[in-house]
Specification:
The complex is a heterodimer. Chain A is an all-alpha fold. Chain A contains eleven helices and no strands. Chain A folds into two domains: about 30-65 and about 245-290; about 80-235, MetI-like fold. In chain B, a hairpin with a 3-residue loop joins strand 1 and strand 2 (about 75-80). The chains are: A mainly alpha, B mainly alpha.
């Protein structure tokens, strides 16, 4: 174990410079997206100093029915996906950490991790072929729409949730649950009062990650979507294939602001929650002593 | 722990009989539901791809011949063709695009490593209070739309884009450089998009290194570069392997980046599969190509799985 007093040597100027360069590389394109969203010129890359900054593209965006409808569809799919993936992923996480050895454990472990490394193009192709085969065999799904996209998204999001829940359950003090059971709590009560609050951060990050994965996906959606069910990334993809377009910059700026606020907010919330928990624990120990 | 739903009614507040281990039924439910789901939506689809890759294309819906045909009175007859696979090896188009994809993925993985390693090391050696912030700075772009971040590069790389304006203003070039729709842009896009996947596993490894080793080496007179080469680098090999695989595997099958930034003349394998499927409507060849890609990636995928398994159990 690392000793508390000893610290790894501090970063040299060279390393710090490399880090600064890398971060600039990561953020430069994002900054340029935001800046040019306020540019009056339709040529996204030429700054029209006479008429900028302007909110013109934001106004146009709000009147773009196609994008608004696609955004609504994407929110719907991403939320349904996140809820489904959290439930199934939690089941899988529990099965892999809590049930010990059972028949088919190796298969379940392989099935949970394999989608993480499967190239998207293969996932998309194989799911489309599955839906077509099901349609021929059972007549369901009758057409490809939001339902098939959601099912496809759940099938790869489950793995991410399972990994997160597994990691949380692995570093988890079971004595609390055992104590509660000894004190006569029913398993349901133990789950609600102890297990669930302890794994709640994992469920939240699993939900958010699943939402983002679905909200971002274009390759798999393109395979399993039908006519009239274009998600937001699909609309953006077909738009930007034809070249840059300033209203996409405005859309990007809105999304980036939203995501940044969400990620920073939830991180702060989790940190505060952990700090409070530690304080409570210390107080309890102080009272007990 | 049993898998009963958290919304079950409150249990009566009476002394309970001692709890038995989770009942068989709930155990079966917890393991069975995800198993069934993943079988239907992951395993069976791959079997269907295999089946279609062995059939023949035809002009019908579905556009392939059945693998097993039931003929009245004669039972089942199997019609498996290997023609699709033969085509993949005889037509240089497929080999070309596969090799190109592997080359681009390998090259951008190396660039990611060269850029990501010093970044991860710098974060691991930063003051502890600042590490959290720096890590968040690395992860944050990952949460914002991948598609939009790739799109941003079109604006930067265009002939009349920001980078060319800067280069012209600095007199580094007299004519705008052609950057968008080139292999260079694909490299750039992949390195940009997958950099966090390299930095995070490297950081996770570097952060755990024992400072005492480096101190001892310094006491014995090792110079910084020697300490890095003899201690830090060898200890970080697992992190390097994880980062390299996490970038390389998805990069080979990458579809969005080459579609937006890449040349139209040279297609990566992901686009070839998509073209065969949607434009040529040759489902059997598209399926065979998908399986060939999977076969090529199987070794790196298995190494990554084993590595992950060790990480989880550690």
């Amino acid at each position: 174990m690392r000793q508390g007093v000893q610290r790894l040597p501090r970063a040299s100027g060279l390393l710090a410079g490399a880090l600064a360069l890398g971060l600039a590389f990561l953020y430069l394109p994002i900054v340029s997206l935001v800046v040019f969203s306020f540019n009056a010129s339709r040529l996204v890359t030429v700054w029209d100093a006479a008429h900028s900054p302007t909110l013109r593209w934001y106004v146009e965006l709000l009147h773009n029915a196609q994008i608004l409808q696609a955004a609504r569809l994407s929110v719907l799919i991403a939320s349904m996906n996140a809820c489904g993936a959290v439930v199934l992923g939690t089941f899988a996480g529990f099965a892999l950490t809590r049930l010990g050895g059972f028949r088919g454990r190796a298969l379940l472990a392989a099935l949970t991790t394999a989608p993480l490394v499967m190239p998207e193009i293969i996932t998309g192709l194989s799911l489309l072929l599955l839906f077509i085969a099901l349609q021929q065999l059972l007549g369901w799904p009758a057409r490809r729409d939001a339902t098939t996209i959601t099912l496809a998204h759940i099938s790869f999001s489950v793995s991410y949730v399972a990994i997160i829940v597994q990691a949380r359950l692995a570093g988890f003090d079971r004595s609390l649950e055992e104590a509660a059971l000894d004190l006569g709590a029913t398993p349901v009560r133990v789950f609600r009062r102890i297990t669930l609050p302890l794994i709640a951060p994992a469920l939240l990050s699993g939900w958010l990650l699943s939402f983002t994965l679905s909200w971002d996906d274009v390759v798999i959606s393109q395979f399993v979507a039908g006519p009239g069910s274009s998600t937001l990334p699909m609309v953006i993809f077909s738009k930007v294939r034809l070249g840059v377009s300033p209203d996409v910059n405005a859309l990007a700026t809105l999304l980036i602001t939203l995501v940044a606020a969400g990620v920073i907010g939830s991180t702060l919330w989790l940190q505060r929650r952990d700090r409070r928990r530690i304080r409570e624990l210390q107080q309890a120990q102080a009272q007990g002593a | 722990m049993s898998a009963q739903t958290p919304h079950a009614p409150h249990a009566p507040q009476v002394p309970q009989v001692p709890q038995v281990p989770p009942a068989r039924a709930s155990r079966a439910l917890v393991a069975g539901v995800p198993m069934l789901w993943l079988s239907v939506f992951f395993l069976i689809p791959l079997v269907i791809v295999l089946k279609i890759s062995l059939s023949e294309a035809r002009l019908a819906m579905p556009p392939y011949t059945p693998l097993v045909e039931w003929v009245r009175g004669q039972g089942a007859s199997l019609h498996a063709h290997l023609d699709n696979y033969r085509l993949l090896f005889s037509d240089p188009l497929y080999a070309d695009s596969l090799l190109y994809s592997l080359r681009v993925a390998a090259g951008s993985t190396v660039c990611c490593l060269l850029l990501g390693y010093p970044m991860a090391l710098a974060i691991a050696r930063a003051v502890p209070e600042r590490r959290h912030l720096l890590l968040m700075a690395i992860i944050l772009p990952f949460w914002t739309s991948f598609l939009l971040r790739v799109y941003a590069w079109i604006g930067l790389l265009q002939d009349d884009g920001v980078i060319n304006h800067v280069l012209l203003a600095l007199h580094l070039t007299h004519r705008p450089l052609r950057m968008v729709n080139t292999t260079f842009a694909v490299y750039l896009g992949i390195v940009y998009s997958y950099l966090p996947f390299m930095v995070l596993p490297l950081y996770a490894n570097l952060e755990k290194h024992d400072a005492a080793l480096l101190e001892a080496a310094a006491d014995l007179g090792a110079r910084p570069w020697q300490r890095f080469r003899r201690i830090t680098l060898p200890l970080s090999v697992p992190g390097i392997i994880a980062g390299v695989l996490l970038v390389f595997i998805p990069a080979v099958g990458e579809f969005v980046i080459p579609s937006l930034l890449g040349p139209a003349s040279q297609l990566m394998i992901g686009r070839v599969i998509s073209t065969e499927f949607f434009e040529n409507r040759d489902w059997p060849v598209a399926s065979a190509l998908a399986l060939l890609l999977l076969a090529l990636l199987l070794a790196p995928i298995l190494i990554l799985q084993r590595y992950r398994g060790r990480e989880l159990s550690a």
